[in-house]
Amino acid sequence: MRFLQRLLLVLLSLVAGAVLAAPPIEAYGRLPSVEHLTLSPSGERLATIVVLGERRRLIVAAIGDRLLQAVEVGDAKVRDVWWADDDHVLVITSSTYKAPLVLVSGQAELSNVYSLSVPKGRLVTVFKRKRQVWPAVFGVYGSAVVDGHSYGYFSGWSLVTTRGGQDVVETSGGYLTADLYQVDLDSGEVARIARGRMGQGNWVMDASGKVLAHEEYERGAGIWRLYAGESHERLLLEIVPAAVDLPELMGRGRTAGTVLVHDPGSPEDAMFEVDVRSGTRQQLLSGAGSRRRFRDPDSGLLLGFDTGDADYPQVFTAALRARLKGVDKAFPGLQVRIDSFSRSFDRLVAFTDGGDDSGTWWLVDIPSGKADPIGYAYPKIRSRDVGATRMFRFSAADGLAIDGVLTLPPGSQGQKLPVVVLPHGGPIGVSDGIGFDWWAQAYASLGYAVFQPNYRGSAGRGREFLEAGYGEWGGRMLGDIADGLGALAAAGIVDPRRACIIGASYGGYAALAGVTLQQGLYRCAVAVGGVTDLPLFVGWRQRSQGSKSASIRYLREAIGVEDGAAMARLSPARLASRADAPVLLIHGIDDTVVPIAQSEAMAAALKETGKPHDIIRMKGEDHWLSRDETRSTMLRASVEFLKRHNPPD
Predict the structure, then answer these.
(1) 450 contacts 493 by C-beta, under 8 angstroms
(2) Which helix (H) or strand (E) holds 496?
């Protein structure tokens, strides 16, 4: 453990000389110093992304005193790190691709995968400089060791060479489709093993690297199908899904020859297992939502689900269940997430936060009974700097029971505080929970109470609560947020005359709607990557993804109205003359989910009507605030705006 402890000391040295001072606001806005920390299948190696100053590195270390590899990843947006096997670490990143690409309309966020051979120290980019495949990865489908070689399975756009010598994307029936490739994780050599089709979804591979099953969705007929193998010879399952939610093939089941399917549109929100040989299926979990899955680190077979219950009743392997329960008990009062474990379950990597913990990674060694800290997400934010969080429950105007996360300033008892209302994005199927939230904690550190309401439609509260959000985009969802503010005021926790609303994505829409559709509630509003003009937004989505896409079906159901005039009546940009508080608009230029044109339309409307506002365009930033510098820019700008219009003292 000595190397890891030295790494920990380096991170802790970042706070040297500032022991007594409160952390600067930038400490909250920076990306985590350690992230994606994961244990190899043998339990003998660790891989993680470490930020030292402005440099991001992929670190691979042996459990003991040996650094195995340290690879610069620069300013890449790292989305995940995992072990294909004990000798190969895979890293997924994403980048924004822009016009003039003949392949992409406008701009899109596309992924790349890198394979690091730990013994050889060689980094291979999947599909890079391979004339037969365009250099982007559209799906990741596991790995296998075949005849002594380590392979990964990825989907990508195949290229063909025209008579003029130009490489263009191969199409199927006039549509772009992603084919399935086997990639040698040492050399990067590729071999196409299955052709994609229109509506092609996920593949599942067996232990030998063969296609076990695949899914397809026929848009015109609205039918989702599961097939055995790579062809259409054997249909296993056919579902006519709900208007919004498509079933999804989720990988291998509990035993060889089975696959996992999630049907979110079913009354039970079911996760079930399908036997590929017989076609029979068995429901494993109801209320599946986005429950995390535990998988065998070697085979990828399903070991169980994390349902949030400390007894782990949906973990099917007794030895793993005992380990998980023991780790939970070792960290009372904290949120505990198990991210990886060895094949013997004798070593686990856990992440804790919540309480007074701003985020700590632990290596848990069962035989020795020890848990050693091996990384801190926010080393400059100490326990005394973390504001207390709790769930605050209230009733909406129509009697619906709702909750939200309340964060108080460090040391505060919560009486008549200025408040920041911070609604989440989504809006359907997302929620906020107890744990360290860098955005909420940043405002709390300045003396504000922060409230994150889980308005109707939020996840984790049952199917009926989730479906209650459909059609309420500009209606009762906004009412729920306002009702939460009123309940906090009635409890004496906040001063309702000193409230601002801040949010991103749908939360940004809610912030702008809070000072246009609603009035008299907030002293200021900040929208980060927010939707402002629904007719323009839906039209943009239709052009880029198609009028029958899942995205458009979702928007129609969530908004609840379809004609332009009705959507305009719910659009803050069309109601700018009603804005009764100053507005700050912040938007990433590389946003591929909500285009920056949405904030620009709002800014133009506010300017035309003479309403106080400002707009900040963040170069190189996407929808998810993935960049270190621009995330801090957003936080500093919103804090300055907040202090100006709703000072904390």
Answers:
(1) no
(2) strand 494-504
Nearest alpha carbon to residue 463 among 251, 269, 241: 269
* Domain-located, residue 104: no
Sign of CA dihedral 10, 11, 14, 15: negative
The contacts of residue 499 (CB under 8 Å, 6+ apart) are 418, 419, 420, 421, 485, 521, 522, 523, 646
Average pLDDT, integer, range 440-449: 97
* Chosen domain end from 361, 381, 401: 381
* Domain match, 359 and 402 both: no
- Do 632 and 509 lie in one domain? The reply is yes
Q: Mention every residue, 6+ apart, whose C-beta is less than 8 A from residue 192.
A: 132, 158, 179, 180, 181
What's the whole-model pTM score?
A: 0.92
Q: Is 149 within the bounds of a domain?
A: no
Q: Which two tokens stand for residue 543?
A: 């052009």
The conformation of residue 485, written as its DSSP 8-state character, comes to: H
Angstrom CA distances, 554 to 244, 378, 423, 547, stand at 5, 36, 20, 11
282 found inside a domain? no
Alpha carbon distances (Å) from 245 to 263, 439, 507: 8, 30, 22
In this predicted structure, the answer to whether residue 66 has a pLDDT above a threshold of 70 is yes
132 with 120: CB under 8 angstroms? Answer: no
Q: pLDDT tens across 478-520, in order?
A: 999 999 999 999 999 999 999 999 999 999 999 999 999 999 9
Q: What is the pLDDT of residue 105?
A: 55
Same structural domain, 614 and 518: yes
Residue 15 in this model has a pLDDT that exceeds 90 = no
> Which among 639, 624, 386 has a CA at the least distance from the CA of 524?
639
DSSP 31: P
**Which segment, 191-200, 211-220, 476-485, is predicted with the most confidence on average?**
476-485
Peptide bond into 427 cis (omega under 30): yes
